[in-house]
Write a structure and sequence with these properties.
45% helix; 7 strands; Glycerol-3-phosphate (1)-acyltransferase; alpha/beta; seven-stranded mixed beta sheet; globular; single chain
Length: 239
């Protein structure tokens, strides 16, 4: 919370205008091109990062498909994860978030601009509807991000169990799956510190449909989580 306040205070002159822009873009999201929406989100996030002493160190952007739709599957450390991805993703994407986050201050406007879906994991029928909607959107050329752990790990850089059901939309759409290893993101919003922090975002080699079409979703989850886990462990060993 302290870092969020710092981000706002250091951008106080522009914050009201950016907030209005987020509201307007969110209200008219379906009528605006992705490039324009992404440009606004990136401008706001990068200025917030500068004000909040957050640096993004991204690598592997060449692994993100340049054409066609795909889905990101990163590990989940906290509320800052999506903002870190907005800062450095080479292509626009939407996101599936748990229903508790969809109406959070500031983030709710970001999610509206992105065209995010809120999922209630306790409601099977609603969850299936979200999977169907995401599948259709991906087939129509839109990119998505899903946190396969379902909730943040709350264990720093240690990842939780990746749920096989999270990969159903990717399988049904037959799109590339891009694993993403996020490191130290929890230090941005999930601690009381405002000390400078560097968040690493590693875009890993994608899994293409031909590679996983014969696999169960639980097997896909294991492959993706293992790639992310090895990347994080490599980082920790080198530091």
């Amino acid at each position: 919370m302290k870092r969020i306040i710092l981000m706002v205070l250091r951008n106080l002159l522009f914050a009201p205008y950016w907030y209005w822009q987020l509201w307007y873009y969110g209200k008219h999201s379906q009528d605006l091109p992705d490039e324009k929406k992404f440009a606004l989100l990136r401008k706001i996030v990068r200025n917030a990062n500068k004000g909040g002493n957050v640096t993004i160190d991204a690598c592997g952007m060449e692994n993100v498909p340049k054409e066609g739709s795909f889905m990101y599957f990163p590990n989940h450390q906290g509320m800052y994860d999506v903002l870190a991805m907005i800062d450095c993703s080479p292509r626009f994407f939407s996101v599936v978030v748990k229903k508790e986050l969809i109406n959070m201050f500031f983030l709710k406007h970001v999610f509206r601009v992105m065209g995010a879906y809120a999922i209630d994991r306790e409601d099977v029928r609603q969850s299936m509807k979200v999977i169907q909607n995401v599948t259709k959107d991906v087939k129509d050329g839109h990119n998505y991000l899903i946190f396969a752990e379902g909730t943040r790990s709350r264990k720093g850089n240690k990842i939780g169990e990746f749920k096989g059901g999270s990969f159903k939309s990717a399988v049904k759409a037959g799109c590339p799956i891009v694993p993403v290893a996020i490191i130290d993101s929890y230090k941005a919003f999930d601690t009381d510190s405002v000390k400078p922090v560097t968040v690493q975002v590693h875009y890993l080699e994608p899994l293409y449909y031909d590679e996983y079409k014969m696999m169960k979703t639980t097997e896909i989850a294991e492959v993706v989580s293992e790639r992310i886990r090895k990347t994080i462990e490599k980082f920790e060993k080198n530091n």
